[in-house]
Every structure is written in structure tokens, then in C-alpha cells.
Design goal:
heterodimer, A: 253 residues, 6-stranded mixed β-sheet, disordered C terminus, B: 444 residues, alpha/beta, 10-stranded mixed β-sheet, 20 strands
Chain lengths: 253, 444
């Protein structure tokens, strides 16, 4: 489904990603862990089409197409979703208006009929309940004045509404208390099935207690320096990132 | 005398005998004095501080001639400006003259007078003698004098004590595109104690014409009166529009003045509010959209003369292409105006590298127990927000449009009139693309 080969990205001329290789198949959950500054957010954003980084080498294939040739909106319509680490506040646009516009833009691109207001509300209400969010949040401006936890839940709500095939969660767990973390994890798990894949970018192992990954990769200094199963996450929790960074040069080769 | 001034002198001598109220002694005196003042002041140039950012040289390259009569307008041509048929009392003026055939005959309620100024000056001029010019300060050069000298028509609205017309009063000023024409409109609103009304002034152009529209609206709010005033300017042509709104507010009166400018070759809105009585409140809300080479200048002044008065001034400008927006907001808190609360903000959204916005907040505070705040921003669309919307599947164009509408939303939400808001939503959507119509989202 997603096939990344030797991906190099620079931002303002500075190399951030220095040769990433990754294969993601339908049904899989991949966790990308790494210390601050290792390139996690750049990695997540380049998948969604953020243009502030420059891809200097390598390729990303999605469903056998060239993902890098697609605009952010074309990627979203192809089924890619990025839950932002820092969801953007947009005063003046209501949450429900954004959700409905986004869902209908994606449905239109697939040749499906747009949902009217009634159908859309039916579509969203059950998902709202799953995220334990108050309906009132729908009518507030997007993320404006939301608490950190509300913003993260709102990202997952958008994911549930848009039902992507590949969801990238960029530190969706950071700043959440344990209750919110469980709600977010339940939301993600409710979408999990054999056709969908997830790339979960996180700093902490904690989230992986609730979202069980199939693979864990460690990103350090722009390279995936180690890959393994869920046990790797537990080892990182115990030993920290230091021991990996020391061997980063060798492992990345 | 300069060539244009010679022209205006000639025109004044020519039209004076046929202007409304000709032969009324007090009016003849005022017109004559105003013409003399205009002649000596001429149009201000950019060396005058208040005109630093608005260059009027184009007015000296061309001369404008007072329109003799209304051009022909079919009723159907006005439909886009009738708020989808929302019920209103209405007077229609075409090229500076009342177009009686286009005015519906819906009688205004008791305690309300709505008439053409020209009609009153012909029939009972004494009713206007005490009020005409009352809000004009002696030191306002150029356009106000020109307005008094050439005054053609306009509306007179009088609300008796406690009168509260239920329907809005709509004044529609249409220019048909007579090239080189001069329109001089004077409006007067007298709101008696405890009265309350919504007044909508639409100034529109049906065709492009390099005309000059000089309008002055004088407002006197007596104790406890409340006025919602909407100034809607819509013109895709090259006209020069100079609009004055001058307001005197007695104790506990309330003003909400909305200035909405959708284009115009050169637009200068002069808004002056004098808070003369304790407890008076004014809220000024400006929204402008300038494209192409349009120039929109909002020049405002609020005088706090009395204690316990409040002013809240919010201006937003969307500037595209090579257009330019200017905002000057002067707030003067006089020594006796203790417990003043004054807020001002000016936000400017630039949509192109060639667009320009100038904002000049000016506070003069001569009292010590006051709360005054102001904020001013100028910026482009937020790249982070654009990416966020696109990452949700929205086209780049739709995302841009949505963010521009979002910028305008704060201003829209301050407008109490639903017909005006709906109209404006539609106008913005027409100009900015389909990302709008946000407030129509149905809530179940």
C-alpha cells in the first residue's frame, strides 16, 4: 500500500530525513518512535504533502502510484489522513462546516453523492459519541479555544468521519491525560480493519499499550535505525533512546 | 483659480436657480458660503495629514458636472439589491435624484417621517433649517462644502419620541453611469428620545462611469435613541466615492455603524462620531474588499466628550491584486470623559504581493481614568491553515476562499440585520468563491 524507498528530505537546505525505507501493507499498524528532533513530524507531514520540505532523493509509492506527484488534497482523496501534532486553529470556520466540506470533497472525487445536512448529521453523531465529544463542539470554530485534549480528539473525530485507508497519527498522544488517551486509542482501534493501515508517530511507548502495533521502528537523526515488533517499544521505554543513537551511523547503513 | 475650480464656479452659477430650495433665503446663504469655502479650499492634497494615503490628483485632471435628472432604470435592474424581497420601507434615488416611480408606496408607521430632502426643501424648508449642517464642523475642508453648495437630494428621516419602526428603512442610491457626472447627496437622520431604527444605505453603480459621488449623512441621536446604520457600497467601476457619516450622540444613545465596501475606484469614507452625553455607546464595524487597482480609505474619528461612554471600533480589510486599503482611526478622549472605554482594532488581509494596507491608530487621551485598547495586524493567509484544509481534501482554491471568508466572519457576526448578512454572504461568495455561505449551515 505504502512503499517508501531511500527518502531524503531537506528543510531550508538542512537534511532532515536521510534515507528512509518503509513498507506498509493493508491491515498493519506501524509505530515510528524517536527522540525530539529526529525528523518524526517532517516524515509525517511529507506523507501528507506539506511543501515546506524538499524531497531531494528517493520515492514514495501509494497504491502503485507516485505519491510525491500528488497535491495534499489529492492525497486526502486517495485515502491518506494526517492527524496533526499541532492542530491548526481556524477562527471563523465552524467545525461542522469543515467536516462536511471535507467529507463531500472526498466523496465527490470518488463519484459518490454528497451527503445533505441530515445524512451528514446522522453520519457524524455516532462518531461524536465514540470520541465522547459534546455536539456543541461541532458548531465552534475549528480548534479555536479548544483545550489540548479537545484538539487531539477533534483530529481523531475527523479521521473517523473521513475513514481514510492510511492514517498517520503525529504524536496524537502527547499532552493527553490517561482518560483522553484511552478515548483516542479506542477511536483509532474502532477504525482498524484488514483494509486500513496506520502509521503512529510517537515519542512515548505509552500509547502503544492501547494501540498494539505490528511493527515498531526507531527514527534517529533522519534514519530508521532499528525495526522490530512490539517488544522493541518496551525496550525503548526501559533503556531510553541513547543506546540507539550511539549506534545510529552503523545501523542506518 | 484652477481650471476645475473655474468649472465648479460656473456650474454653481448655472445650477443654483434650479437646485432644490432655490430662493429660500437661509439656504441660498448657506450654499453661497459653502461655494466660497469650497473654492478657497479646493480638494485636499496628500500634504494634508488626513489625506496622506489618498491621492486625489485624478479629481483635478477631470471635471464633474451635476446631473440634471435621473437616468432611466428598470425596476428589474434593482432586484439584486432588494435583499431577496425582505420587507422594508424604501426610497430609490437615481443619479442623485429621487426616482418616485421606483419607490414602493408602503406607508411608514406613525411617528416616522421618511422623505426626499429635495421635496422638503421645496415644500417646507423651515423644517430642515435647524438641522441641515448641524453636524458639520467648520474645519472640514473640500468635500463637505461642495456637498452643501451643490446639494441635490437625499433622504430625511425623522423619528419622533419612542418611535420604533419595525421594518428597516432602505435607501437605495443608484448611479446609471453618466460619465463625468457629479452627484451630491445629503441625508439627515433625526432620532428623537427613545426612538430606534435600522437604516440601510446602498450605494451602487449599474454601469462603470468615471463619476464623482459626494454623499454626506448627518445623524443626531437624542437621549436613549438607538440606530443601526448600514452603509453598503458596491461598485466595480472607476467612480470616486466620498462618503461622510457624521453623528452626534446624546446621553445613553446607541449607534451601530457598519461600513461595507465591495469595490470602488476610489472610496473615501469619513466617519465621525461625537459622544456628547454620558452613557452613549457606539460600535463601528468596517469590512472592505478591494481588488484590481481599487483604493478604499476609511478615515474615522471618535470624540469622547462625556464620561461613561463606550466606543468599539473594528475594521477589517481584504486587499487583492494591486489594490490598496487605508484605515485611520483617531480616538480623542477629552478631559471630562472619565470612565471612557474605547476599543479599536484594524486587521488587514493581503492576498497578493502587490496589495497594500496602511493602518494608523491614533489615540489622544486627556483623561486619566480610562480603558483604551487597540490592536492592528496585517498579514497574508496562514500557510499552516491552508495546508491543514488541503490535507482534509479541500481544493487549494476552496481552502483559500474558506480562510478569506473566515477572516470576514468576525465582521459579519457583528451585523444584526439578517437580510444584510445574507446579502453580504452572497456577495462575498460571488467574489471570493464557494468557500463561503458558512452561516447558512443548518443546525439541527
Amino acid at each position: 500500500m505504502l512503499s517508501i524507498h531511500d527518502l531524503h528530505v531537506t528543510i531550508d537546505g538542512k537534511p532532515i530525513l536521510k534515507g528512509i525505507d518503509l513498507e506498509v501493507r493493508p491491515g498493519e499498524i506501524h509505530a515510528i518512535m524517536g527522540p525530539n528532533g529526529s525528523g518524526k513530524t517532517t516524515f509525517a507531514q511529507v506523507l501528507a504533502g506539506r511543501e515546506n520540505g524538499t524531497v531531494t532523493a528517493g520515492s514514495i509509492r501509494f497504491d502503485d502510484g507516485d505519491l510525491l506527484a500528488l497535491t495534499p488534497e489529492a492525497r486526502a482523496r486517495a485515502g491518506i489522513f494526517l492527524a496533526f501534532q499541532y492542530p491548526v486553529e481556524i477562527p471563523g470556520v465552524s467545525n461542522i462546516y469543515l467536516l462536511k466540506s471535507a467529507l463531500n470533497a472526498i466523496r465527490r472525487s470518488r463519484g459518490e453523492a454528497e451527503l445533505d445536512a441530515m445524512d451528514f448529521l446522522a453520519h457524524i453523531k455516532e462518531r461524536l459519541a465514540r470520541m465522547q465529544m459534546d455536539e456543541e463542539l461541532l458548531y465552534r470554530p475549528v480548534n479555536a479555544g479548544f483545550s489540548g485534549g479537545e484538539k487531539k480528539r477533534n483530529e481523531v473525530l475527523q479521521m473517523l468521519v473521513l475513514e481514510p485507508r492510511l492514517a498517520i497519527l503525529d504524536e496524537t498522544d502527547s499532552g493527553l491525560d490517561i482518560d483522553a488517551l484511552q478515548v483516542v486509542a479506542r477511536g483509532v482501534n474502532s477504525l482498524r480493519d484488514a483494509q486500513r493501515a496506520f502509521v503512529v508517530v510517537t515519542h512515548y511507548q505509552r500509547l502503544l499499550n492501547y494501540i498494539e502495533p505490528d511493527f515498531v521502528h526507531v527514527l534517529a537523526d533522519g534514519r530508521l535505525v532499528r525495526s522490530g515488533g512490539p517488544e522493541l517499544a518496551r525496550e525503548l521505554e526501559r533503556r531510553g533512546y541513547g543506546w540507539l543513537q550511539e549506534t545510529a551511523g552503523g545501523a542506518g547503513a | 483659480m484652477s481650471v476645475p475650480m473655474l468649472h465648479y464656479r460656473e456650474q454653481f452659477d448655472r445650477v443654483q436657480p434650479v437646485l432644490p430650495g432655490a430662493g429660500v433665503p437661509w439656504l441660498t446663504l448657506r450654499r453661497g458660503a459653502a461655494m466660497a469655502a469650497f473654492q478657497s479650499q479646493a480638494f485636499p492634497d496628500t500634504r494634508v495629514e488626513a489625506w496622506k494615503y489618498t491621492d486625489l490628483r485624478r479629481l483635478n485632471r477631470q471635471v464633474f458636472t451635476p446631473t440634471a435628472a435621473a437616468g432611466v432604470v428598470r425596476e428589474s435592474a434593482l432586484r439584486p439589491w432588494l435583499f431577496d424581497g425582505a420587507p422594508m420601507h424604501r426610497l430609490v434615488f437615481v443619479d442623485g435624484h429621487l426616482a418616485a416611480s421606483l419607490c414602493p408606496s408602503s406607508p411608514v408607521p406613525r411617528g416616522v417621517t421618511l422623505r426626499s430632502i429635495a421635496g422638503v426643501l421645496e415644500q417646507e424648508p423651515q423644517r430642515l433649517e435647524p438641522v441641515l449642517g448641524r453636524t458639520l464642523a467648520a474645519d472640514r475642508p473640500g468635500f463637505d462644502s461642495m456637498n452643501t453648495a451643490f446639494l441635490q437630494d437625499g433622504y430625511w428621516l425623522r423619528l419622533e419620541r419612542d418611535a420604533m419602526p419595525e421594518l428597516p428603512l432602505h435607501l437605495l442610491f443608484v448611479s446609471t453611469g453618466q460619465a463625468g457626472s457629479l452627484m451630491t447627496l445629503r441625508n439627515v437622520i433625526e432620532a428623537g428620545p427613545g426612538s430606534s431604527a435600522t437604516v440601510i444605505e446602498s450605494h451602487i453603480a449599474l454601469h462603470d462611469a468615471g463619476c464623482l459621488v459626494n454623499s454626506v449623512t448627518e445623524v443626531v441621536l437624542e437621549a436613549g435613541a438607538a440606530l443601526q446604520h448600514y452603509l453598503l457600497q458596491q461598485d466595480e467601476g472607476s467612480a470616486t466615492r466620498v462618503a461622510g457619516l457624521y453623528v452626534l450622540q446624546a446621553r445613553d444613545s446607541r449607534l451601530a455603524a457598519h461600513s461595507i465596501t465591495l469595490g470602488g475606484g476610489l472610496v473615501r469614507n469619513e466617519l465621525q462620531v461625537s459622544l456628547d452625553g454620558p452613557g452613549a455607546e457606539c460600535a463601528l464595524n468596517g469590512l472592505s474588499l478591494a481588488r484590481g487597482h481599487q483604493h478604499v480609505d476609511n478615515h474615522t474619528r471618535i470624540d469622547h466628550h462625556a464620561p461613561h461612554a463606550t466606543s468599539n471600533e473594528r475594521y477589517r480589510a481584504i486587499v487583492a491584486d494591486h489594490a490598496r486599503s487605508v484605515f485611520s482611526g483617531r480616538i480623542v478622549v477629552h478631559p471630562q470623559a472619565q470612565q471612557t472605554r474605547a476599543q479599536q482594532s484594524s486587521h488587514n488581509l493581503l492576498l497578493a504581493a502587490g496589495a497594500e494596507a496602511d493602518a494608523r491608530p491614533q489615540f489622544e487621551i486627556r483623561a486619566d481614568d480610562v480603558q483604551c485598547t487597540h490592536g492592528c495586524t496585517t498579514g497574508e493567509l496562514d500557510a499552516e491553515a491552508l495546508f491543514y484544509l488541503r490535507a482534509r481534501g479541500l481544493d487549494a482554491e476552496v481552502a483559500r476562499s474558506m480562510l478569506i471568508h473566515a477572516f470576514a466572519r468576525d465582521s459579519l457576526e457583528r451585523m444584526a440585520s439578517v437580510p444584510v448578512r445574507d446579502w453580504l454572504e452572497h456577495q462575498l461568495a460571488t467574489r471570493l468563491g464557494s468557500g463561503g455561505m458558512i452561516s447558512r449551515e443548518v443546525r439541527h
